[in-house]
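Memo to structure team: turn this sequence into C-alpha coordinates by end of day. - J.P.
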Amino acid sequence: MHVPDGFLDTTTSLSTAAVAAVGVAAALRGARHELDERTAPLAGLTAAFVFAVQMMNFPVLYGTSGHLIGGALTAVLVGPWTAVLCMTVVLMVQGLLFADGGLTALGTNVTLMGLVAVAVGYGVFRALVAVLPRTRAGLLASAGVGAFLSVPTAAMVFVGLFSLGAVADVPLGTVATYMGGVHLLIGLGEAAITVAVLGAVLAVRPDLVRGARHLQAAVALAPRAHPAPAVPTGSDAR
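Reply from structure team:
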Protein backbone atom coordinates (compact mmCIF):
# COMPACT_ATOMS: atom_id res chain seq x y z
CA MET A 1 0.00 0.00 0.00
CA HIS A 2 2.95 2.35 0.49
CA VAL A 3 2.97 4.63 -2.54
CA PRO A 4 6.51 5.31 -3.86
CA ASP A 5 7.81 8.47 -5.49
CA GLY A 6 7.01 8.96 -9.16
CA PHE A 7 3.53 7.43 -9.29
CA LEU A 8 1.52 10.66 -8.94
CA ASP A 9 2.12 14.10 -10.37
CA THR A 10 3.02 17.15 -8.31
CA THR A 11 -0.50 18.57 -8.23
CA THR A 12 -2.02 15.37 -6.89
CA SER A 13 0.79 14.87 -4.38
CA LEU A 14 0.40 18.43 -3.06
CA SER A 15 -3.37 18.01 -2.86
CA THR A 16 -3.10 14.84 -0.79
CA ALA A 17 -0.46 16.54 1.39
CA ALA A 18 -2.95 19.33 2.08
CA VAL A 19 -5.69 16.80 2.91
CA ALA A 20 -3.29 14.96 5.20
CA ALA A 21 -2.26 18.19 6.95
CA VAL A 22 -5.90 19.15 7.61
CA GLY A 23 -6.67 15.64 8.84
CA VAL A 24 -3.70 15.54 11.20
CA ALA A 25 -4.53 19.01 12.53
CA ALA A 26 -8.07 17.85 13.29
CA ALA A 27 -6.69 14.71 14.92
CA LEU A 28 -4.44 16.79 17.18
CA ARG A 29 -7.53 18.56 18.49
CA GLY A 30 -9.69 15.44 18.72
CA ALA A 31 -7.03 13.37 20.46
CA ARG A 32 -7.18 15.70 23.48
CA HIS A 33 -10.47 14.06 24.40
CA GLU A 34 -9.11 10.53 23.95
CA LEU A 35 -5.71 10.65 25.61
CA ASP A 36 -5.24 10.41 29.34
CA GLU A 37 -2.65 8.94 31.70
CA ARG A 38 -3.79 5.42 30.78
CA THR A 39 -4.30 5.69 27.01
CA ALA A 40 -1.26 7.82 26.19
CA PRO A 41 1.27 5.03 26.91
CA LEU A 42 -0.96 2.57 25.06
CA ALA A 43 -0.95 4.86 22.01
CA GLY A 44 2.84 4.74 21.94
CA LEU A 45 2.87 0.97 22.29
CA THR A 46 0.24 0.63 19.56
CA ALA A 47 2.23 2.80 17.16
CA ALA A 48 5.36 0.74 17.86
CA PHE A 49 3.43 -2.49 17.31
CA VAL A 50 1.96 -1.31 13.99
CA PHE A 51 5.39 -0.14 12.86
CA ALA A 52 6.92 -3.53 13.65
CA VAL A 53 4.13 -5.59 12.11
CA GLN A 54 4.06 -3.48 8.95
CA MET A 55 7.65 -4.55 8.36
CA MET A 56 6.49 -8.18 8.22
CA ASN A 57 4.92 -9.25 4.92
CA PHE A 58 2.75 -12.28 4.24
CA PRO A 59 2.37 -13.90 0.79
CA VAL A 60 -0.79 -13.04 -1.13
CA LEU A 61 -0.94 -13.89 -4.84
CA TYR A 62 1.30 -14.18 -7.91
CA GLY A 63 4.46 -13.58 -5.94
CA THR A 64 3.07 -10.49 -4.22
CA SER A 65 2.86 -9.90 -0.49
CA GLY A 66 0.90 -7.75 1.88
CA HIS A 67 1.21 -6.37 5.39
CA LEU A 68 -0.99 -5.00 8.13
CA ILE A 69 -2.15 -1.42 7.71
CA GLY A 70 -3.48 -1.22 11.25
CA GLY A 71 -5.92 1.67 10.90
CA ALA A 72 -8.96 -0.17 12.26
CA LEU A 73 -6.96 -1.98 14.96
CA THR A 74 -5.41 1.24 16.23
CA ALA A 75 -8.73 3.11 16.18
CA VAL A 76 -10.50 0.43 18.22
CA LEU A 77 -7.65 0.32 20.73
CA VAL A 78 -7.04 4.03 21.33
CA GLY A 79 -9.75 5.95 19.44
CA PRO A 80 -9.93 7.28 15.87
CA TRP A 81 -8.25 10.65 16.40
CA THR A 82 -5.32 9.16 18.26
CA ALA A 83 -5.15 6.42 15.62
CA VAL A 84 -4.62 9.04 12.91
CA LEU A 85 -1.68 10.45 14.88
CA CYS A 86 -0.21 6.99 15.49
CA MET A 87 -0.46 6.07 11.80
CA THR A 88 1.08 9.39 10.75
CA VAL A 89 4.08 8.90 13.04
CA VAL A 90 4.56 5.34 11.74
CA LEU A 91 4.41 6.45 8.10
CA MET A 92 6.78 9.37 8.67
CA VAL A 93 9.40 7.15 10.33
CA GLN A 94 9.07 4.53 7.60
CA GLY A 95 9.41 7.10 4.83
CA LEU A 96 12.23 9.12 6.36
CA LEU A 97 14.38 6.35 7.83
CA PHE A 98 13.54 3.23 5.86
CA ALA A 99 12.50 4.59 2.44
CA ASP A 100 9.24 2.65 2.79
CA GLY A 101 6.99 4.96 0.78
CA GLY A 102 8.23 8.00 -1.10
CA LEU A 103 8.86 11.32 0.59
CA THR A 104 6.91 13.19 -2.09
CA ALA A 105 4.11 10.66 -1.54
CA LEU A 106 4.06 11.01 2.25
CA GLY A 107 0.87 13.05 2.11
CA THR A 108 -0.70 10.41 -0.11
CA ASN A 109 0.27 7.59 2.23
CA VAL A 110 -1.02 9.48 5.28
CA THR A 111 -4.27 10.17 3.45
CA LEU A 112 -4.72 6.54 2.41
CA MET A 113 -3.54 4.69 5.52
CA GLY A 114 -3.84 7.35 8.19
CA LEU A 115 -7.17 8.91 7.20
CA VAL A 116 -9.12 6.65 4.85
CA ALA A 117 -8.22 3.33 6.51
CA VAL A 118 -8.90 4.69 9.99
CA ALA A 119 -12.16 6.40 9.01
CA VAL A 120 -13.55 3.41 7.14
CA GLY A 121 -12.35 0.83 9.64
CA TYR A 122 -13.64 2.68 12.68
CA GLY A 123 -16.83 3.85 10.95
CA VAL A 124 -17.79 0.30 9.99
CA PHE A 125 -16.83 -0.90 13.47
CA ARG A 126 -19.11 1.63 15.17
CA ALA A 127 -21.98 0.92 12.80
CA LEU A 128 -21.81 -2.83 13.41
CA VAL A 129 -21.31 -2.51 17.17
CA ALA A 130 -24.61 -0.62 17.27
CA VAL A 131 -26.57 -3.51 15.72
CA LEU A 132 -24.71 -6.67 16.72
CA PRO A 133 -25.01 -8.27 20.16
CA ARG A 134 -23.11 -6.31 22.77
CA THR A 135 -20.70 -9.14 23.45
CA ARG A 136 -17.02 -9.84 23.00
CA ALA A 137 -17.79 -11.87 19.87
CA GLY A 138 -19.87 -9.01 18.46
CA LEU A 139 -17.05 -6.54 19.08
CA LEU A 140 -14.45 -8.76 17.42
CA ALA A 141 -16.71 -9.38 14.42
CA SER A 142 -17.30 -5.64 14.05
CA ALA A 143 -13.58 -4.90 14.22
CA GLY A 144 -12.78 -7.69 11.76
CA VAL A 145 -15.25 -6.47 9.16
CA GLY A 146 -14.09 -2.89 9.59
CA ALA A 147 -10.46 -3.92 9.18
CA PHE A 148 -11.28 -6.00 6.10
CA LEU A 149 -13.18 -3.21 4.32
CA SER A 150 -10.62 -0.53 5.18
CA VAL A 151 -7.94 -2.14 3.00
CA PRO A 152 -9.68 -2.38 -0.42
CA THR A 153 -11.32 1.00 0.20
CA ALA A 154 -7.94 2.66 0.67
CA ALA A 155 -6.68 0.81 -2.40
CA MET A 156 -9.59 2.09 -4.50
CA VAL A 157 -9.00 5.64 -3.29
CA PHE A 158 -5.45 5.29 -4.59
CA VAL A 159 -6.84 4.11 -7.93
CA GLY A 160 -8.94 7.27 -8.02
CA LEU A 161 -5.88 9.40 -7.33
CA PHE A 162 -3.96 7.50 -10.00
CA SER A 163 -6.70 8.23 -12.52
CA LEU A 164 -6.37 11.95 -11.78
CA GLY A 165 -2.60 12.34 -11.62
CA ALA A 166 -0.83 9.28 -12.91
CA VAL A 167 2.81 9.67 -13.88
CA ALA A 168 3.83 6.01 -14.07
CA ASP A 169 3.18 4.46 -17.49
CA VAL A 170 0.74 1.79 -16.29
CA PRO A 171 -2.79 1.38 -17.71
CA LEU A 172 -5.51 2.45 -15.28
CA GLY A 173 -7.44 -0.78 -15.80
CA THR A 174 -4.42 -2.82 -14.83
CA VAL A 175 -3.89 -0.75 -11.70
CA ALA A 176 -7.56 -1.02 -10.70
CA THR A 177 -7.71 -4.78 -11.26
CA TYR A 178 -4.47 -5.45 -9.44
CA MET A 179 -5.12 -3.11 -6.51
CA GLY A 180 -8.68 -4.30 -6.07
CA GLY A 181 -8.02 -8.02 -6.31
CA VAL A 182 -4.84 -8.17 -4.28
CA HIS A 183 -6.08 -5.88 -1.54
CA LEU A 184 -9.24 -7.90 -1.06
CA LEU A 185 -6.94 -10.76 -0.08
CA ILE A 186 -4.75 -8.49 2.01
CA GLY A 187 -7.93 -7.35 3.75
CA LEU A 188 -8.50 -10.90 4.94
CA GLY A 189 -5.07 -10.90 6.56
CA GLU A 190 -5.80 -7.47 8.03
CA ALA A 191 -9.01 -8.77 9.57
CA ALA A 192 -7.37 -11.89 10.97
CA ILE A 193 -4.53 -9.94 12.62
CA THR A 194 -6.92 -7.31 13.97
CA VAL A 195 -9.23 -9.90 15.54
CA ALA A 196 -6.29 -11.87 16.97
CA VAL A 197 -4.67 -8.84 18.59
CA LEU A 198 -7.91 -7.42 19.97
CA GLY A 199 -8.90 -10.83 21.27
CA ALA A 200 -5.60 -11.15 23.11
CA VAL A 201 -5.88 -7.69 24.67
CA LEU A 202 -9.51 -8.23 25.64
CA ALA A 203 -8.58 -11.47 27.35
CA VAL A 204 -6.13 -9.81 29.73
CA ARG A 205 -6.88 -6.05 29.85
CA PRO A 206 -10.29 -5.21 28.37
CA ASP A 207 -10.16 -1.85 30.13
CA LEU A 208 -7.40 -0.76 27.72
CA VAL A 209 -9.58 -1.18 24.61
CA ARG A 210 -11.38 2.08 24.01
CA GLY A 211 -13.82 0.49 21.60
CA ALA A 212 -14.86 -2.03 24.26
CA ARG A 213 -16.09 0.46 26.83
CA HIS A 214 -19.68 -0.39 26.00
CA LEU A 215 -18.95 -3.97 27.07
CA GLN A 216 -17.55 -2.83 30.40
CA ALA A 217 -20.60 -0.61 30.94
CA ALA A 218 -22.90 -3.54 30.18
CA VAL A 219 -21.07 -5.71 32.70
CA ALA A 220 -21.26 -3.00 35.33
CA LEU A 221 -25.01 -2.55 34.81
CA ALA A 222 -25.84 -6.26 34.66
CA PRO A 223 -27.92 -7.42 37.62
CA ARG A 224 -25.94 -9.52 40.04
CA ALA A 225 -27.32 -12.74 41.46
CA HIS A 226 -27.90 -12.61 45.20
CA PRO A 227 -27.63 -15.71 47.39
CA ALA A 228 -30.93 -17.19 48.42
CA PRO A 229 -31.90 -16.60 52.04
CA ALA A 230 -31.01 -19.44 54.38
CA VAL A 231 -33.84 -21.81 55.21
CA PRO A 232 -33.99 -22.52 58.94
CA THR A 233 -33.35 -26.10 59.90
CA GLY A 234 -35.48 -28.13 62.21
CA SER A 235 -33.19 -27.44 65.16
CA ASP A 236 -33.36 -23.70 64.50
CA ALA A 237 -37.14 -23.51 64.27
CA ARG A 238 -38.68 -22.98 67.70
